[in-house]
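Reopening: structure tokens for the thymidine-5'-diphosphate complex, inputs below.
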Amino acid sequence: MAGLFITLEGGDGSGKTTQSRRLTAWLEEQGRTVEHAREPGGTELGLELREIILHRRGYMAPRAEALLYAADRAHNIATAVRPALERGEIVIQDRYLDSSVAYQGAGRVLDADEVRRLSLWAAEGLLPDLTILLDLDPAAGRERLDASRTRYDRLEAEEQDFHERVRAAYLALAEAEPGRFLVLDASEAPEVLAERIRVRVAELLEAGSR
Ligand code: TYD
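Re-run output (same inputs, fresh job):
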């Protein structure tokens, strides 16, 4: 495919949104067309699913949760991401299949390989060209969230242990696929992180002479 698919991953409060905005602005300054995407909730259907996934009260079976994220992913990839990539654009997306492997796999303790296969089925096998992992101690992420909001969604409200498992799973994923991942220490200053990301993306663009 002609375009470039970059995803940002990390725990809640790790600064993904800030970094994806900065990266988008930097690429647009160079005259590139950038599509900003996110999961869950990057499409109209996705917004309805997001509301159910994050805010529905009461128990939700882990497999139901995994399938709802996969449904959101399937629609987002088919209707927003793939068409943009086929037009040769750069897609920068907050969260993708690694979120499902980390949160539903390690967090909810489903089988990580099954969750990955489910996601790949939903997305017809699409893998990112680059995944930026903003690694942060969950306690620090929680402090940042506390400073910016009063209400937690169903996942954010999970206990510390859950978020520790998510972090460990992300690091294991990055270790297993070092070529796809750029792991950054998210406690560093936003400007420092943005520069490291720009260096890696510039290399990628050059390698593909895009
Ligand atoms: P996000 O939109 O990143 O949260 P925010 O409101 O901070 O922007 O994601 C919402 C939650 O969904 C987040 O806690 C992580 C979780 N999540 C999963 O558990 N599995 C997934 O596959 C995805 C994409 C997100």
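The CA atoms of residues 6 and 130 lie 5 Å apart. The mean pLDDT is 96. Marking as resolved unless the reporter disagrees.
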